[in-house]
Amino acid sequence: DKMPGTGRAKQWYQRRVRGDELFSRVSVQHCCGLEDFQPKPDHYDLVWVQWVIIYLSDFDFIELLKRFKKSLKKDGYIVVKDNITNKGCEMDEDDSSVTRSDYQLKQIFKRAGLELVVDTVQRHFPRELYKVKYYALR
């Protein structure tokens, strides 16, 4: 499988964003928005989602998690790593992102039909930045 798309955009991505050597080690690349991504069912041992959920609406995030759940093998996991707020959500007008609270994320996981197995805070992260948490789900 190859990354969909051809021409200049693909070449730019390979050279500038990932580097030819690193890019060649990845067997499959998916070039699409997460709200449109359709993973193969019963295919993955681990789905890692890091610092991208801030660009999804709650609805799109829940639907994506449901698709990821179907894509997991029997003992597979979804790991979500992201910034969290202390309370409520915070909108960033500059990049149209939303940072959610721990409570809000756990409600989204529940609505997606996922079981929270582990949640933990990233240690040794600068205090002036958002807290970062990992969530292991199945």
Strands, helices and their partners?
Elements: H1 8-18, H2 20-25, E1 44-50, H3 58-71, E2 72-84, E3 90-92, E4 97-99, H4 102-111, E5 116-121, E6 131-137
Parallel strand pairs: 1-2
Antiparallel strand pairs: 2-6, 3-4, 5-6
List keywords for this structure.
alpha+beta, 138 residues, 4 helices
Provide a descriptive summary of the structure in words:
The protein is an alpha+beta fold and 138 residues long. Helices cover 30% and strands 28% of the residues. The chain contains four helices and six strands; from the N terminus they run H-H-E-H-E-E-E-H-E-E. It has helices at residues 8-18, 20-25, 58-71, 102-111, and strands spanning 44-50, 72-84, 90-92, 97-99, 116-121, 131-137. The strands form two sheets. Strands 1-2-6-5 form a four-stranded mixed beta sheet. A two-stranded antiparallel ribbon has the order 3-4. The model has no long low-confidence stretch (mean pLDDT 88).
Produce a short descriptive summary.
The chain has 138 residues and is α+β, with helices and mostly antiparallel strands. It is built from 4 helices and 6 strands, in the order ααβαβββαββ. It starts with 7 loop residues before the first helix and ends with a strand.
Residue runs with pLDDT of under 50 for 5 or more positions: none
Please report the number of helical segments.
Answer: 4
Strand content: 25-35%
Distance between the amino and carboxyl termini: 27 Å
The strand line-up of the biggest sheet is 1-2-6-5
Question: Structural class of the secondary structure composition?
Answer: alpha+beta
Radius of gyration (Å): 16 Å
- Indicate the mean pLDDT: 88
The H-and-E topology, N to C, reads as HHEHEEEHEE
Query: Tell me about the biggest sheet?
Result: 4 strands, mixed
For the secondary structure, the number of strands is 6
Shape by Cα distribution:
globular
Helical content band: 25-40%
